[in-house]
Design a protein that fits this description.
Distance between the termini: 96 Å
Oligomer: single chain
Structural class: mainly alpha
Number of helices: 24
Length: 377
Amino acid sequence: MNPETNFDAEYLLGLARQKSSESRNRLTKVIIDLFDGDAGMLNDRQRALMFGILENIINDIELSIRHSVASRLAAMQDVPRGLIVRLANDKVRVAYPILEKSGLLRDNDLIEVIQLRTDEHMLAITRRHAVSENVSDALVKSGREPVIVSLLKNQNAQISNSTMEYLVEQARRIDSFHEPIVSRDDLNPDLAKRMYLWVSVALREHIVSSFKLEQGVVDELLEQAAWEEMSDIKRDKKNKASALADALKDGGLVNSEILISALQEGEIRLFVALFAKISKLRDFLIQRLLFEPGGEGLAIAARAIGMSAADFERLFIYSQLAKAETMDQAQLRLPELMRFYEATPQKAATEVLGRWHRGSDYLSALRELQIRLKEND
């Protein structure tokens, strides 16, 4: 049979009736030749016949020939879905081109492959021209590091905000996630800043350049990174302080007096843990509030939680003494800071605290409040 000019249905059916592997392989090669020729000359009935034959014999032909069939069918749009799904679940050599290129596969088909087949099958899916959020979620849930890295490198893969946030957090301990996450076009600025804390110097420079971060923000991130490192080193002590803070909170004992007492005794970790229970701020930010020279950030946080001016005055004095400042130095800063404290409405302080909860830039939120207060003078 000359496949380019003569479609002989009886010849194909005759081969299909033979059960030998030789006849099955020969039949498949003939069909492949027909697809490689001018397949547009075949009518719908002829194409349906060929696909029907393939569906019946596909499991009985050699692996190398199944691979050839899959490679040709991967880009075609009129193939029976049942045949495509079977090929997608075949051995990876056969399935790979189908999983990578076939537009006939639906999300549920791909998710089933992810759940039941090998890492290599999943890698093929990560290379698809388009990957939906549902499929990306399934790939990430597999927990396979090479698969996730390949997915992240595919800029056409849609990854939900919650999944990206999870991957950014996982990047604390998985270095291979760093570069592909930072390089993604859909990485939002807040997550990029979080990534800044645990990536290399080169990737930090990339984040600063790509997201056009101001120097003040960069300084804040560097300080936060240093705090993260210190937290890791002192994790046991931090956990003990947190446990004590939980017990005190459960007993209804977390108030201004106990905060001041913790600072007075030099229990910085306990103060941070206690203040976090009241303010809901992250530990590293409370550490910054505590040790910054001016004290404005600490004043805003204390105002927001309803601390009296007299209690805040004592809190500030002990915060300065905790970082080895003298009483004279603390008293020198106090008058201006107390004017700032009393001029700050609790509602305005609470709004700033809310921005810090959402991860807004510490410095910009502080500057904006200071500008508003000056305008109201």
